[in-house]
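Example record for the data management plan.
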Amino acid sequence: MNERANPSVMKQIFRIFLGPVVFLLFLSLPAPEGLSPLGMKCCGAGLWVVLWWITEPFPIALTSLFSLLLYAALGLLKPPVSFAFLGNPSIVLLLGSMILLGVWKESRLIERYAYWTISMGWVKGRPLRLLLVFGLAGGTLSMIIPNIPVAILFVSIAVAMAKGVGAKQGEPLYRCLCMSSGISSALGGAGTPIGGAPNLVVIGVIASALHYEMPFWAWSAIGFPMAMLWLLVMVALLWLMLLRGVKDTEIPLDIAAERLKALGPVTKHEHIAMATMGLALFLWSFGQPLAKAMGFPGLARILTPPIIALFCGCLLFFIPMEREKDGIRFAMSWQQGLRAMNWDILIFVAGALAFGDMLIQGGVDKFMAGHLSNILGDMSPTMVWVVLMALSGLVSQAFSNVAVIGFMLPITAAISVEYGLNPIVTCLTVGMVSNIGIMFPVSSPPTAVTLMGAEGYTTAGDFLRFSVPMIASAAIIALLMGTLLGDIVFPAELLSAQ
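Corresponding structural encoding:
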């Protein structure tokens, strides 16, 4: 007797065929006015890839890898161009940064920073002070550390503190701390280019659409103050929504202090981790200006963010720490380096970069920008800017922010030029707001891991209610910072020189 097909198998088969079937059906439609046959093919291929990214019949990274082959096979990108995204400067920057950040985890420096911050005596027994320190600590750490381990670390501290005083689920203080664990790590990532994989996609799409290579200092000049303001707004909103009126309470700061004490004195490994990251941050910020000022233009051309990241990351493999029986122990072993390299993220980012470039090559960005311009009509440039941030920010709550950035930024670049906006600043702020995935567990990994590790002290409904005012506030702050600093960091003559 034949057994019935397993429903999960049938569901996966449906998801597998959904992409190519939609691709073929789309190509059978008449092309809308203004979209070339190449553009139609690009749209169809984009729909295929996006559907596989959303429904996940295969791992997301595998879909991204397949997309490089698909674009080359369909003639949308030349094979050398399509496959070159695996070695894109953004991928090299991400790879080097992963090694640099890996030594923070291997040396346990990331834990020491978290415990040291939380155990500050200034906090005493005041909930608002604890929330402020907790949120800023997680947010600033996520500017240079991948946000997933930051969220995991801080939610585990919050739960341990709650259990330390026997707090019930839903108690306002620990509810806020658990929410802050995921939200602050998502918000803080906008502070620097290495604050998250979506940032590298923003940089890559800007390079492709506007032919501008984003310096580390330029991103940080807008991103750092913006992220700090976002974090302060997060604390204010959590206080207004949940913590207002809560009196001083017993806060078991001794838990953080005990864990800090258990780590012992700062190790040589941690000193190396801090020094190497400090060197990278210094070179990213001042390397090129200093080289030019000293009369070394050739060196200035070499000191790009990807090369600096790779150099400082590789440096860890050659810094000796101590002699052992079987040889010398270095700051990073090759096995540790491999653990630090997240190939899923690297391949996914490569696919997202290729996705954006494919839309540009097919003219889809200009086609979509034209239709969106008709909808926007006679709106002022400022309102257009706000709409673009709000649209991308809301869509990224339901879909992968990396995919949203890859789709929205080429369109944003075309629209911003039409409305007389600074395209670099507009794309940068739209990309930053798109990175705030906090509404649902599927919006971003930090939200998902926070909910999994919160043990009921916060719920998905908390994130849903909090997300709308937070995203609206973030868009307003991004507009303010872009208006005040945008033309200073990215002057008009910069674009005319491209």
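Summary line stored alongside the record: The first strand starts at residue 320 and ends at 324.
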